[in-house]
Write a structure and sequence with these properties.
Elements: E1 12-16, H1 18-27, H2 34-43, E2 48-52, H3 62-71, E3 76-80, H4 84-93, E4 97-100, H5 121-132, E5 136-141, H6 145-154, E6 158-162, H7 164-171, H8 175-194, E7 198-202, H9 207-214, E8 219-224, H10 226-235, H11 237-253
Parallel strand pairs: 1-2, 1-8, 2-3, 3-4, 4-5, 5-6, 6-7, 7-8
Helix pairs in contact: 2-3, 4-5, 7-8, 9-11, 10-11
The chain binds pyridoxine-5'-phosphate.
Length: 254
């Protein structure tokens, strides 16, 4: 087991700007610009910006990543599949962190966590090369003991616990399963922290679901995208982010 890490002093919010690019790409051209959204998110209180460059470039494009890295004043978390192409882009960009995620061409969004238990040697190589370049490495995993232990063994700095199943059950008002998933996430956060990993969480979080996860003292960062960008269309990016931060702080303090 790795050396003990202290509990995070505060809970950070990473804002994922992928879906600003989704709207832009619906019409071509440059509007709305995800980099401008990133600047506005930071002004509204975001602690970092996340962007996922997918193999098919369906939202974020190579140029967005380069501009985000060059322009933003808070850490860039570059989400990517562990492929030779993405590894080369990450090593060229040198973001603050890389979050390695599974990626299937036909999925609408990232489904399930990374298969770290059955990981091939390329994942290991990817983690090694990113770390050697001074990039923090995060693995997006299911909140279960086996992937947590495997992530620690692989030398990851961070695990991001997948909150998607919890959020889906909450959307379906299936409170029994919600409770089960909250327990699973709570246990996962404790185990990952005890294994010396920094703990992040994300996927599908909304105003209604953020509190349960924000409450876990081991969690250092939440990454939230789709809901915030959707709210931004309705009420504006700043009020949406400010409300999310308020809910995170209230939950953490309670
Ligand atoms: N974390 C990871 C690793 C993700 O892949 C995503 C989706 O891109 C998110 C967080 C954010 O999920 P959402 O857009 O549902 O808030």
């Amino acid at each position: 087991m790795s050396e003990a890490r202290s509990l995070p002093a505060a809970l950070r919010l990473g804002v994922n700007v992928d879906h600003v690019a989704t709207v832009r790409n619906a019409r071509g051209g440059g509007h709305p610009d995800p980099v401008r959204a990133a600047h506005l998110a930071i002004e509204a209180g975001a602690d970092g910006i996340t962007a996922h460059l997918r193999e098919d470039r369906r939202h974020i494009r190579d140029d967005d990543i380069a501009r985000l890295k060059a322009e933003i004043t808070r850490p860039l978390n570059f989400e990517m599949a562990a492929t030779p192409e993405m590894l080369a882009i990450a090593l060229k960009t040198v973001p603050h962190a890389c979050c390695l995620v599974p990626e299937k061409r036909e999925e609408r969004t990232t489904e399930g966590g990374l298969d770290v238990v059955g990981a091939g040697s390329f994942l290991e190589r990817c983690i090694g090369e990113l770390k050697a370049a001074g990039i923090r490495v995060s693995l997006f995993i299911e909140p279960d003991r086996a992937p947590i232990e495997a992530a620690a063994k692989l030398g990851a700095d961070i695990v991001e616990l997948h909150t998607g199943t919890y959020c889906e059950y909450a959307l379906a008002n299936d409170w029994q399963r919600v409770e089960h998933e909250v327990q699973r996430l709570r246990r996962g956060a404790r185990e990952a922290h005890a294994a010396g990993l920094e703990v992040h969480a994300g996927h599908g979080l909304t105003y209604n679901t953020v509190g349960e996860v924000a409450r876990f003292p081991e969690v250092a960062e939440l990454n939230i995208g789709h809901f915030l960008i959707g709210e931004a269309i309705l009420i504006g990016l700043r009020p949406a982010i400010e409300r999310m931060i308020r809910l995170m702080r209230e939950a953490r303090a309670s």
